[in-house]
Amino acid sequence: MSLLEIKNLTTSFATEQGKVQAVRGISLSVEQGEIVGIVGESGSGKSQSMYSVMGLLSENGTIESGSILFDGQEISPVQFDGNAAAYEKLMEGIRGNSMSMIFQDPMSFLNPVLTIEKQLVEPLKNHKKMSAAELHQKAVELLTQVGIPSPEERLKQYPHQLSGGMRQRVIIAIALACNPKLIIADEPTTALDVTIQAKIIELIKELKEKTGSGVILITHDLGVVASACSRVYIMYGGKIVETGLADEIYYQPQHPYTSGLLACVNNPEEDTELRPIPGSPPDLIKPPAGCPFVDRCDKAMKICKMKMPPERKLSDTHAVCCWLTEKPASGKEGE
Amino acid sequence: METMETMELTPDLFEPLDSAEKNSEFIAAEPRTYLSDAWHRFRKNKLALCGLVFLVIMVILAIVVPMVSPYTYDGMDYSSVNLLPCLEHPMGTDKFGRDILVRVMYGARISLMIGFSSALICLVIGVVYGGFSGYIGGKTDMILMRIVDILYAIPNLLLVILIMLVFGSNVTSIMIGICLTSWIGMARMVRAQVMSLKEQEFALAAYVLGASKSRILFKHLVINCMGSIIVNVTLLVPSAIFTEAFLSFVGIGISAPAASWGTLANEARSLIESSNPIQIIWPILAICLTMLSLNFIGDGVSDAFDPKKK
Amino acid sequence: MEETPILKVEGLKTYFPVGGGLFGKKQVVKAVNDVSFEVMEHETFGLVGESGCGKSTLGRTLVKIYEPTEGKIEFMGKDITKLSGSEMQDFRRNVQMIFQDPYASLNPRMTVGEIIREPMEIHNIGTPKERDEKVASLLETVGLKPDHVRRYPHEFSGGQRQRISIARTLALDPKFIVCDEPISALDVSIQAQIINLLERIQRERGISYLFIAHDLGAVKHISNRIGAMYLGSLVEIGSSDDLYHHPLHPYTQALLASIPIPDPKRMRERKKEEINGEIPSPLDIPSGCPFRTRCPYATERCAQEKPQLRQVGNSKVACHLYDK
């Protein structure tokens, strides 16, 4: 059984301009002890799908349908039939305990007027019964685990006394506090300098090895997650357009969006021309009837505009939604 | 995905799509300006809308009633004093036989005028002073803000009463009195917002484009505090009306025969135990309803301009 | 490539005083600490470094948002630190800036049309009709539609906003544009779009750029020459190829080694030649070479003597490793 199994998740936001269909029926799964990447640009629904799982949607957001099985337990509010209190109670027990999140911006997540120690033991106080001495012991342990030198002193400090990379390590330590089964990292390196990025990814990898947790890594940069993920989901316009093992995605991309993403990452070791994807992502107030990528795709066909392509399995692990793979045999061309 | 059968997949569907049919810079929402956006939200607040309707009616009545009524606000008629409401005098008459309806509506003119004009004056002074102070910063800001602190330290009412003593009891001196200190809140608010906005990149961008200081201040900074400014104004109006009513009620405001609501209430006070105790109801009712609707409007406006309520 | 410099910076220092209130002693942040370089005509000079290295302060000093503490900035042969009023307006017409955050750099209360028209209004260029035409043609240049003029910035995505911001800077036909991390806040797929757009504009209009970024990968494509900056000092200047294929300074090497590449196998194999720790506070710059606290090759000498930029091969580098 998978650690996390999402089926047909649909999430929308009510805005003044109309209903924004941020997540449009996605299915994905995460196993124990693997790092899964969710890659897409802003507005692709990658973060909102995970906020839906954590029950952290903003007030105007609702999960319209779908099931979310976490560790064998159904945690989609849809299955609670309007019993919001029961859902909230369940999620309070899960959030920060068996499922935790690492946020993009360390500075806005940490409370500036509380010491690192206070913030670090917060989830432990909420979920575990521990004495003060045990809590302190655990806090020291956690900081050591995320590679922060002289943890005893750091615990007494405030967030502004730490550098950006250190803060992100503290956030990771907070996420790890209750030994979660699943860690969702929402663009954990975007706010950091390149020299620090690689180290944070490395740290997440190491910790996964040690704790055996499942990790979901949300990012817009295929380069950043290349070394870390075993499997990757590519999201575009609220849908998953391609999924596969990392090697399948990086070396045999099937969807034009995936190849586009790969082509526009700067690879300094090869002097390739930059090939950007033209245009902007679709407006999800009126999501396109067909493939969401059609307006920016250089291989777009007439049918792409009319109908969403079906999911085609290319191997046990590799699947893609693109009319190119559905093209009748007569004129087979284009990868 | 399940409904594959519903459409036949003919080869011509797999022809390349014409690039003219691609539209990747498409924006679905209707273009809407900031103010129309705010109005849209304001309209949803029923109480605020009621308040606005009431206020508009009040303004119209204040203008029209004294014009069409056969009575004037100071026309005495000793043959009909202290009448209860009747057909000729819907609100009755006072101890000099003056029509109370006309006097209340005439009072509305004065009260509303004082309320709105002093709010307007405070708006101009506060925005310019606060904007200037916040944008220039440094020593200038320090000096300007200390002046404000000193003004703020003088008891408000004391100041108003002093001014009335010097300039006499009339509309102008009441307005001067009210305006002398009421703009301070506005100035402080605008200064604080301008200070944080001026570091924003769009203000720097205007600077790099070569825009003059006043252009940056008014076209870029002040316009971005518009929401808070409007909210602040909706609070200034009732407070000015209230101050005036209070002053007139205690007898140092507008003096007879001119009538503001405060003056009317003051005059009717002595009649509470006499034949016509309900005279005092009318001006008080007018003040209360106007205050209430202004507060509802203020509430609605602050919601409408709150960026979080998108 | 033309060999006349359009911009010449010599010994530039920009310091900011901090503290000095009632408590604590007055300190000085040496954000830009003795920097010299030139930007040639039609050239793109890339400037890379981590956050807090002073690269944005340098860019802002060049467009006179900040006043330099010391040093000379010559633009087209004129020292811009002493300009008269009308010379200043000329300078503003010729030198523009694109900002980092596309969500903050456009006035949210102005329509796209007003935003792009504003520079022409400020400098009194053209009749209202000519301005409208120019706005339309600029929108087209950056790949937006003329009917977008009546919309407000919040209706656009990050990449679209950055293109609006580019259109605004082009309204004055400047000769030199400081691009202050114009792609850092954007998605990877959009970054390449903006870089290509900037390159195309340069080809068509012969503008020179100072292109600031924290990611060497992004700068590589657009720059002719690149300078690496660390704690207020330039530690290496070289042509973009030299810097990539033969980085000299240990800091440049580290920056290069940390660029993420979309290739799992090579990322896994990549040797972890990492630099230690993080950038020190600019309030407390190490003595001698600023990089010595993180440098794997640091020696006694690095602590005592600040290395100066000098020619090594085709590049210039400030490092004692290359002393004969």
Automatic annotation (TrEMBL), chain A:
One GO MF term: ATP binding
Gene3D superfamilies to which the protein is assigned, alphabetical: P-loop containing nucleotide triphosphate hydrolases (3.40.50.300)
The UniProt entry lists membrane topology as: Peripheral membrane protein
InterPro entries per record: AAA+_ATPase (IPR003593), ABC_Ni/Peptide_Import (IPR050388), ABC_transporter-like_ATP-bd (IPR003439), ABC_transporter-like_CS (IPR017871), Oligopep_ABC_C (IPR013563), P-loop_NTPase (IPR027417)
User: Which cell locations does it reside in?
Assistant: Cell membrane
Q: Which UniProt keywords apply?
A: ATP-binding, Cell membrane, Membrane, Nucleotide-binding, Transport
**Which is a Pfam family this sequence falls into?**
oligo_HPY
Q: Where is the ABC transporter domain?
A: 4-262
SMART domains the record matches: AAA
Family in the record: Belongs to the ABC transporter superfamily.
Protein name from the UniProt record: ABC transporter ATP-binding protein
To which species is this protein native?
A: Hydrogenoanaerobacterium saccharovorans
Its lineage opens with: Bacteria, Bacillati, Bacillota, Clostridia, Eubacteriales
From TrEMBL, chain B:
Domain of life assignment: Bacteria
TM spans (from-to): 47-68, 110-132, 144-167, 173-190, 221-241, 247-268, 280-298
Q: Which InterPro entries match?
A: BP-dependent_transpt_permease (IPR050366), MetI-like (IPR000515), MetI-like_sf (IPR035906), OppC_N (IPR025966)
Gene3D superfamilies membership:
MetI-like
The UniProt similarity line reads: Belongs to the binding-protein-dependent transport system permease family.
Q: How does it sit in the membrane?
A: Multi-pass membrane protein
Localization (cell): Cell membrane
Quote the protein name from its UniProt record.
ABC transporter permease
Kindly indicate whether the keyword Membrane belongs to this entry.
Answer: yes
Q: What Pfam families does UniProt report for this protein, alphabetically? A: BPD_transp_1 (PF00528), OppC_N (PF12911)
| Segments forming domain ABC transmembrane type-1 | 108-298
Q: Alphabetically list the UniProt keywords.
A: Cell membrane, Membrane, Transmembrane, Transmembrane helix, Transport
Automatic annotation (TrEMBL), chain C:
Arranged from A to Z, the UniProt key words for this protein are:
ATP-binding, Nucleotide-binding, Transport
> What CDD domains does the record tag this protein with?
ABC_NikE_OppD_transporters (cd03257)
* Classification via InterPro entries: AAA+_ATPase, ABC_transp_ATP-bind, ABC_transporter-like_ATP-bd, ABC_transporter-like_CS, Oligopep_ABC_C, P-loop_NTPase
Q: Mind telling me which PROSITE patterns this protein's record contains? A: ABC_TRANSPORTER_1 (PS00211), ABC_TRANSPORTER_2 (PS50893)
Which GO MF terms are attached to this record? ATP binding
Q: Where is the ABC transporter domain?
A: 7-256
Q: Is Nucleotide-binding one of the keywords?
A: yes
Family the UniProt entry places it in: Belongs to the ABC transporter superfamily.
What name does the UniProt record give this protein? Dipeptide ABC transporter ATP-binding protein
* Species, as recorded: Hydrogenoanaerobacterium saccharovorans
